[in-house]
Design goal:
420 residues, alpha/beta, 8-stranded parallel sheet, 18 helices
Length: 420
Amino acid sequence: MVEYKVKDLGLASKGELKIEWAEKQMPVLVMLRKRYSEKKPFKNLVIGAVLHVTKETAVLVKALKDSGAEVWLAASNPLSTQDDVAAALVEYGINVFAWRGESSDEYYWCLREVADAEPDIVLDDGADMHALLHSEYPELASKLIGGTEETTTGVIRLKALEGDGILKYPVIAVNNAYTKHLFDNRYGTGQSTFDGILRATNTLIAGKVVVIAGYGWVGKGIALRARGLGARRVIVVEVDPIRALEAVFDGFEVMPMIEAAKIGDIFITATGNKKVIRREHFMVMKDGALLSNAGHFNVEIWIPDLEDLSIGRRVIRENVTEYRLRDGRSLYLLAEGRLVNLVAAEGHPSEVMDMSFANQFMAVKYLYDNRGKLPPKVMNPPYEIDSMIARVKLESMGISIERLTKEQEEYLKSWKLGTS
């Protein structure tokens, strides 16, 4: 019997159409689903997933269920759930605890519902589930086959657990797969971040000064899209000298946030850290500046400082909150400081999530096939999985690549052959 708490089961038919649309653009995951639905390699396996409940996630959890798993799903963000998709998944036989607009208490109640199902493997996005298991369910954590992690932020938290010597099970850092971070983070977030900003504000990017905090793969993608949309200036704020130098060589301006804050029209954070934009920055910003976040948690734009500086607040458009400051200026916070691409839009395009979630599926299989053999460490996905996903993706696009000849393969293996 399916257990659930969602907004409205009556939305299921609408959600089914969304999922069908996503499936048509996710050929790698659909291929895996077809390949393993007959063999049922995950029979008797309980999977706990804490992911954004979107149409793309639906394609993943359906593939896991069709491959034999019992799946329990909760949202990894209180505002990212697509309620119609959640309803459709319940109808499909997935145990779902997610609705858009959860309070903090409700959010963690949903995670505990998944934990109480005693999963064998957990899939996480941001590491809240991993942290919960280690703090509140240590016995269950000790028995887990393993887990996966989808985000840079989550991998950082898990590395801290490992560094403290208390990580209890192996975790595949799906975020570190090349077919995840090179495409999902750069192209997916780059496009969907501006999709969220535009849906929320309908502002013109051309002619604006765009300030991007962080120049990891997410920041790089956002900077590329800002330039492509005609931004007058694209400014990168970085603390890492190597990334800052890379941004300069890529043709972007680099400066501290206190200087960028004076001239920016649109601010986008993508660092994984807290208080990236704070009191001293708000105090020097232009009237009408837009504040948005593409990092996982709503701590990068420090809202307590913004509230303290304000004499009034109102929701002026859906996903746009105006903060009126004492000196008469107004600053506009998008999506409550949460992930703007998932709160104000639909998240990544299905085409890139196809690769990210194919990595999730194959990571589950790798953990299950190697149960009891892996140490309690954070590890990258095997390159063979990455390569397979890229090859299938290329084939689905009608693209062929060159292959090494036997002679070339031998040459690359030999140390004897050199200059001739």
